[in-house]
């Protein structure tokens, strides 16, 4: 199912633990890491697709998570021509008149309220990931395939507003740990003076 511009509707999931670290899954048999994501099927809305993908890719059910927010608009990325050619030739498919360009995604920010042991990478017969880890929110994105990096940066930047206290979150460099219990660095000094 493609839109008029050739983009497939898709959802992306940024899953946070209680320490505001994000879930990263390692693609089966590859050395690339990514957030859970997947296509929206005919008749699904983005939230329904998000819950289905959450279960299919990492085995979590709606009771294991809380929705914190989502992106306002679709975020798009183009798939490079060499990937499209490789995909079409390996599947034996011919390209159609409606050319596939890439994905348009609604990204959801979720808080995990379940336990790490609730994660199950083998929830379906066709697992997407063979390993997973928690990483800092602003992790360097060099682990993500290059043509998806910009959309990851856009999604993380937009979704940060749901967990930030004040503008400090937006000014943090990639790879910084999150301490969202203080609204600014001067609070730590005030706390120590008051004790």
UniProtKB/TrEMBL annotation:
Cofactor(s) demanded: Mg(2+); Mn(2+); a divalent metal cation
Gene3D superfamilies the UniProt entry points to: Nucleoside Triphosphate Pyrophosphohydrolase (3.90.79.10)
Superkingdom of this protein's organism: Bacteria
The keyword Hydrolase belongs to this UniProt entry's keyword annotation: yes
Keyword check for Hydrolase: yes
Known EC number: 3.6.1.-
UniProt-listed Pfam families: NUDIX (PF00293)
Family statement: Belongs to the Nudix hydrolase family. RppH subfamily.
Protein name: RNA pyrophosphohydrolase
Organism of derivation: Polynucleobacter victoriensis
Lineage: Bacteria, Pseudomonadati, Pseudomonadota, Betaproteobacteria, Burkholderiales
């Amino acid at each position: 199912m493609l839109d008029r511009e050739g983009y497939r509707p898709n959802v992306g999931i940024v899953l946070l633990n209680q320490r505001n670290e994000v879930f990263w899954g390692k693609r089966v048999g590859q050395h690339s890491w990514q957030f859970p994501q997947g296509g929206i099927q005919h008749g699904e809305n983005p939230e329904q697709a998000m819950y289905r993908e959450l279960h299919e890719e990492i085995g979590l059910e709606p009771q294991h998570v809380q929705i914190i927010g989502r992106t306002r608009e679709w975020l798009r990325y183009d798939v490079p021509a060499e990937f499209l050619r490789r995909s079409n030739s390996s599947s034996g498919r011919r390209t159609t008149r409606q050319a596939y360009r890439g994905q348009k995604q609604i990204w959801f920010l979720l808080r995990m309220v379940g336990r790490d042991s609730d994660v199950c990478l083998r929830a379906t017969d066709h697992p997407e990931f063979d390993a997973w880890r928690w990483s800092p929110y602003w992790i360097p994105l060099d682990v993500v395939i290059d043509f998806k990096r910009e959309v990851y940066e856009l999604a993380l930047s937009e979704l940060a507003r749901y967990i930030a206290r004040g503008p400090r979150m937006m000014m943090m460099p990639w790879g910084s740990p999150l301490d969202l219990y203080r609204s600014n660095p001067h609070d730590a000094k005030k706390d120590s003076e008051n004790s």
